[in-house]
Design goal:
The chain has 244 residues and is an alpha+beta fold. Helices cover 53% and strands 14% of the residues.
């Protein structure tokens, strides 16, 4: 269904919330659908906060011509998920709450959570332990060596895709930035460092299209990302097998 024949995103989300969650404490509409990045396949990302006695769940469905990703939580759920996502340095929930449009705020919970989410995002993710950063540098260096020695065009594509994600993540973490997945990883890196984002994507494109200098171009920019985190690491790398 085209935008011409379906209600506007906010109207569709408000109708859904009123019909299914009349006792909602708070509700947000979030995602690309509210931005210039909206596409014909953009969905309504809807976050609903309910009382602890109500059912909490995640559901995907269609409403008024729109694909909907619905997340229903209690206040306690929200804090639990926010904490676990923050520990992972990637929090879709904090971004939904901080940047979403507040559609329902029955008792002030929505306003409070939005302020908290914005503060937590601005503070940045927790620092990466040195041991974890070393492990990432080692893995990226090892995969880069695989790419340099690879003669199979199909394998080069897979290696390039892996290097793109891992190099982007390393660059973001080394700079104290939040991670993302899929398109959100691209957006986080583009926001943090447009130049590195462009060079990485161009390097991967050169490998995928079979350019003669594709491997060298991608290797150069992956090495740049490694240098920002302390440099390539392979020879002499040692990690204890003990769990700590």
């Amino acid at each position: 269904m085209s935008d011409v024949t379906r209600p506007a995103p906010q109207a569709a989300a408000a109708e859904l919330i009123a019909a299914r969650f009349p006792a909602a404490r708070a509700a947000f509409l979030a995602g690309s659908v509210l931005t210039r990045r909206r596409t014909p396949t953009s969905d309504l990302d809807v976050l609903v906060l309910v009382g602890a006695e109500a059912s909490r769940f995640r559901e995907s469905f269609r409403h008024a011509g729109w694909p909907v990703e619905l997340l229903v939580q209690s206040e306690q759920d929200w804090h639990g998920f926010a904490a676990s996502e923050t520990a992972a340095r990637r929090s879709p929930l904090l971004h939904m709450t901080a940047h979403g449009r507040l559609l329902v705020d029955a008792d002030g919970l929505g306003t409070r959570l939005q302020a908290e989410a914005r503060q937590r995002l601005a503070a940045g993710p927790p620092p990466v332990p040195h041991r974890q950063l070393e492990a990432m540098r080692y893995a990226l260096t090892d995969t880069l060596d695989d790419l340099r020695g690879c003669a199979d065009p199909g394998e080069r594509v897979f290696l390039a895709a892996h290097l793109l994600e891992r190099a982007a993540e390393l660059a973001l973490l080394a700079d104290g930035r939040w991670l993302g997945a899929g398109k959100w990883l691209s957006r986080r890196l583009a926001e943090a460092d447009p130049g590195l984002h462009g060079r990485l994507t161009e390097g991967v494109a050169a490998v995928v299209t079979g350019a003669a200098d594709g491997t060298e171009r991608l290797a150069a920019v992956v090495t740049e990302a490694l240098e920002r985190a302390g440099g390539p690491l392979w020879d002499g790398y040692r990690r204890s097998s003990a769990v700590d």
